[in-house]
């Protein structure tokens, strides 16, 4: 159950952070306005809160592992939202990052 909770929290954090950054990008770069930027700022704040709900108590470990989630999630977001087509190196890099997440977060510790 702890593993499932951790994975769900990583997914929620990724949607909040990547979505928030995308909303700010849209507000600024695509000239969609202050409402988009404000929504992005709120989503980014939600990301910061969600990260605190991880079962592991080590901030550095959580953020280091989340970095891999962010990499893979950003490529997935780009594919779904912006119709980005990753190449084999994007996919390989994301897979390496996700392997890093598994080692950092879920390797047995004594």
Give the key terms.
4 helices; mainly alpha
Q: Could you outline the blueprint of secondary structure elements for this entry?
A:
Blueprint: H1 2-29, H2 34-51, H3 59-81, H4 88-106
Helix pairs in contact: 1-2, 1-3, 3-4
Tell me about this structure.
Pfam families: UPF0060 (PF02694). The protein is an all-alpha fold and 110 residues long. It has four helices and no strands. The radius of gyration is 15 Å and the shape is flat. It starts with a helix and ends with a helix.
The ordered string of helix (H) and strand (E) elements is HHHH
Poorly predicted spans: none
What is the overall pLDDT average? 96
Number of domains: 1
> How many individual β-strands?
0
Biggest β-sheet, characterized? none
Kindly estimate the percentage of residues that lie in beta strands according to DSSP: under 5%
Radius of gyration (CA) equals 15 Å
The dominant shape is flat
| Helix fraction bin | over 70%
Q: What is the straight-line distance between the termini?
A: 20 Å
Summarize the structure.
This protein is mostly helical. The protein contains 4 helices and no strands.
